[in-house]
Design a protein that fits this description.
Layout: E1 2-6, E2 22-33, E3 36-40, H1 56-64, E4 68-75, H2 87-93, H3 95-110, E5 112-114, E6 117-119, E7 123-128, H4 133-152, E8 157-162, H5 178-184, E9 187-190, H6 202-207, H7 217-227, E10 240-245, E11 249-254, E12 257-258, H8 268-275, E13 281-285, E14 290-297, E15 302-307, H9 311-323, E16 328-332, H10 352-357
Parallel strand pairs: 1-2, 1-16, 2-4, 4-7, 7-8, 8-9, 9-10, 10-16
Antiparallel strand pairs: 2-3, 5-6, 11-12, 11-15, 13-14, 14-15
Helix pairs in contact: 2-3, 2-4, 3-4, 7-9
Amino acid sequence: NIHGFYAIKSASQIDKIKSLDSVGFGWSRLEYDSGKVILNITRKNNNEYAIPVGFFDPFDTAKKNSTNTMLMVFADDKKLENSKYSLAEYIITEPEARKEAIRAISTQVNQTVSEGISVAFDGVVIDFENLRGENAKGQFNIFLAELRKELNKNNKEVFVALHPAVQPGRSYYDGYDFKTIGGIADKVILMAHDYNAKQLNETEMEMGYTITPLTPIDEIYWALKNITDKDTGVQQKEKILIQLSFDSAQWKLKDGKVINKYPYTPDYETIRQRLLSDDVKIVYSDVYENPCATFFNDSDGTDNIVWYEDQRSINAKLKLAKMFGIEGISLWRLGNIPDYKDTGTREIYLDVWDQLLNFN
């Protein structure tokens, strides 16, 4: 089972929709506006999850190829003004807000009108990020159960994206009750990625610290072990999709010191161009099961290291998932999935798309 997200910048890989079992269109975001919860599908308020111009093309491609069309509903963890809650917490905790959100989601899924065209989605992907603690856990369960009940009226599906558990002794987004969510949802998307540092502190920069693999395999192991736990995990493994995110993290160094506090995130076309160059050294870490590339940049006189994903790192995750009995994958996102055949003398391992299709 392959699910893929079509969001932000995906049009270049619209043709890949036909190979998916379901596609999550990242076209809506919950917001708090003038005292109530609304579902924003426009560009208003700098919403990157808006319905794009020409939306019917990807939607129609999915319909024609029997790919389930899912509306992704995003809610972030920004604190609301004059409130102890983040938006996501507020929606799941306050009964009135919960009702408003569910009503808005249900209305949108049943009928979305844009550019004078009316469409209905097959279901939703709920992406409420960064929930923490027992209270959020219980409230999120209530929200999902009520949403499910409402969407059942029109036979709509419910997918839920959630954060993974991490190794003991470290704090994480633990506001997700895997077992209960697994009982409510049709599919559960495990966001086991983004483990790399999102910024370095002064000491790390001084030291030239650049060991920031995106998906260390021991973290993936822990995430899979917890989501499949026989007592507290998702009970039906066929519902679990391990999400693969095609991200990157690049650091620049001068005189052995990192000069960018936040990592650059080059896309895979840029990474590919680099990897094809003879003066780039490709290193694969067996410890992390992640690749990185190092090179000197003449134009700004910096040493560079970029962490990314390739066939080998994806294969390591898929093998591990299979070991835990997980056969489904989710892809973040179309538009950035490496799909390059190796040509010439240098193997760069970026023929990822074919590998994904052959997973099962």
